[in-house]
Amino acid sequence: MSLWFRFDHRRGEFRLQAAGEVPATGITALFGPSGCGKSTLLRLIAGLERCDDGEVRMGQDCWQNDRTFRPPHQRPIGYVIQEGQLFPHLSVRANLRYGWKRAGRTNGTAAGPAFATVIELLGLTGLLDRRPGQLSGGQRQRVAIGRALLTRPRVLLLDEPLAALDAGAKRAILPYLERLHRELALPVLYVSHDGDEVARIADRLLLMEAGRIRAAGDLSAMLTRTDLPLARGEQAETVLEATVDGHDADWHLTRLRFAGGELSLATGTELAVGERRRVRILARDVSLTLSPAADSSILNILPARVSEIRPLNPAQALVCLDLGGTPLLAHITHKSVAALGLEPGTPVYAQIKSVALLV
Ligand SMILES: Nc1ncnc2c1ncn2[C@@H]1O[C@H](COP(=O)(O)OP(=O)(O)OP(=O)(O)O)[C@@H](O)[C@H]1O
């Protein structure tokens, strides 16, 4: 069941006019610069902030329109913010049980993951007897997400749940979110202004700017849309869904197949053959040649065609490539565009260093 919303909301100088949909499964990232209204939108959906001109529906179930306003505790949501707000005097087990008990009151008989499943999915087994003060920031956030899940929500609203964590703790918690995503069929609306986080876990993107939804769509398509700022930033990247095809044991390389070809990847960890993985290629790690170099150290040399060229700044251009139907972004200099005579339709070879691929 998908979540649908529309709001026209003023707060002082700030005006939020946004409508959108969160599909029934997968992670939808609400992404945009600081101050654009992401948290406000989440709070409006949760009913934590009241807006007179708004509508929220989950499937056929109306949470808000011009006649109805259900308060937050009557909306079947799991809500987690930066600092997960656990009860400091209760153990992890008791914090989780609180979520479990609340489920009966708010969501009636709604189906949801079992207590043991949540503990296992979030790796909380060894932490159950500790108090929040005895946990790391990342562990606390895992407990907070577990508690929210145990309320058996019909949608999970996460407001920058990893923002207070350092890079290492973030890296450690992301695999848990990826697991939740794979194993629970629950819509998640995930607020973030961290492109790295979003590229790793989101399926869809709602791109927000100055109180409005500027664009919405599948992550891969949104990242490579040349009319959006995402393709223009320093961290611009292409995200591909690929399947692990095999290993080259002699050289510790993994082969991945995607719709537009094959890639070799130097992974630190062994990936299982047949496994689906997300491959991320930064636009600045892609270089172009007119013929396939036979004497290059670069392992991934893929035939492509230039589909579009746009200026990025006085020195650099954004080149969008077509790899047999799959778009790929490259940031190269105007000097190189001129030297290679690139224009839409030019056949080229895209070179991607195997160490530059991220999964
Ligand atoms: N209590 C308040 N009173 C008046 N204006 C506010 C209040 N809280 C936030 N704002 C303004 O509302 C706008 C949206 O804020 P909001 O917190 O939703 O943005 P955000 O996109 O979530 O930002 P961030 O990524 O920094 O958390 C901002 O311009 C902010 O200055």
TrEMBL record:
GO cellular component terms listed in the entry, alphabetical order: membrane
GO MF annotations, alphabetized: ABC-type transporter activity; ATP binding; ATP hydrolysis activity; molybdate ion transmembrane transporter activity
Keyword tags: ATP-binding, Cell inner membrane, Cell membrane, Membrane, Molybdenum, Nucleotide-binding, Translocase, Transport
InterPro entries reported in the protein's UniProt record: AAA+_ATPase (IPR003593), ABC_transporter-like_ATP-bd (IPR003439), ABC_transporter-like_CS (IPR017871), Mo/tungstate-bd_C_term_dom (IPR008995), ModC_ABC_ATP-bd (IPR011868), Molybdenum_import_ModC (IPR050334), Mop_domain (IPR004606), P-loop_NTPase (IPR027417)
One Pfam family it belongs to: TOBE
Tagged with keyword Translocase: yes
SUPFAM superfamilies the record matches: MOP-like, P-loop containing nucleoside triphosphate hydrolases
Domain Mop, first and last residues per copy: 295-359
Chain ranges of the ABC transporter domain: 1-235
Name of the protein described by the UniProt record: ABC-type molybdate transporter, ATPase component
Organism listed in the record: Thiohalobacter thiocyanaticus
